[in-house]
Design goal:
The protein has five helices and twelve strands. The protein starts with 7 loop residues before the first helix and ends with a helix. It is 30% helix and 24% strand. By secondary structure, it is an alpha+beta fold. Bound molecules: zinc ion (ZN). The site of zinc ion has 6 residues, from helix 3.
């Protein structure tokens, strides 16, 4: 069962569509996995829609203005936005993984590999809120122990990872900040969505050897 969920403020911001793109993706993925949060988002969206309808109620004397505006909008030529072909599954090291719907149209960089950790960065237009990637921990992989200057969100898509604070299954919304030093690892392999808004800080090991990992993770 999923144990880690976005908090109420995050769900409300998601429903109101005010989150940066990378965090919108994170919540959208979680909602695909979590029926509880999906229901709460649907409720929040309905409440928002109702409040907008009440606020925008058109007075009878303004009706013609509304009609004019509507016909103006309908007369405008429609714009076609090029969309990347849907990619429902990906192959990593000879294994096939299904992607959540929220990620299927997002372009990605090629995989970079360091030891038994792979990373493919998502190419988002809006980088203002941090860097989003797919991370793949091969069986037995461990990320060197680190803490965060900002936030780190890890959301397993397939497989399980664990750290000093617990074990996380697909859909878990694992949000960590600078207070936590941890060493994520996976016994059987784990594909994750990962989001960082600042480089990590390693707390053990030789900095010279860890620089490469730092570049890989951020
Ligand atoms: Zn949830």
């Amino acid at each position: 069962m999923i144990n880690f969920h976005p908090d109420n403020a995050l769900l409300a911001a998601y429903a109101a569509d005010t989150l940066p793109l990378s965090m919108t993706l994170a919540v959208a993925i979680h909602v695909e996995f979590c029926p509880t949060c999906a229901r709460r988002v649907a409720d929040l969206e309905r409440q928002l829609a109702e409040s907008v309808l009440i606020a925008d109620r058109v007075l009878p004397e303004e009706e013609h203005l509304f009609d004019d505006m509507l016909s103006y909008i309908l007369e405008q030529p429609s714009i076609t936005v090029p969309v990347q072909a849907e990619e429902p599954k990906i192959e990593i090291q000879g294994q096939t993984f299904w992607l959540p719907r929220a990620l299927r149209h997002i372009s990605r960089q090629n995989w970079q590999q360091m030891g038994n950790i792979g990373r493919s960065r998502l190419l988002l237009d809006d980088q203002s809120s941090g860097r989003a990637s797919l991370m793949y921990l091969s069986a037995g992989a461990a990320v060197p122990q680190h803490t965060h200057r900002g936030i780190e969100l890890t959301l397993p898509l397939t497989g399980v990872f664990r750290d000093e604070l617990g074990e996380y299954i697909p859909g878990d919304f694992v949000l960590r900040d600078a207070k936590v030093a941890h060493q994520p690892q996976s016994r059987d392999g784990c594909l994750c969505f990962a989001l960082l808004d600042a480089p990590v800080q390693f707390t053990q090991g030789l900095p010279r050897l860890l620089n490469g990992f730092g570049d890989l993770l951020y």
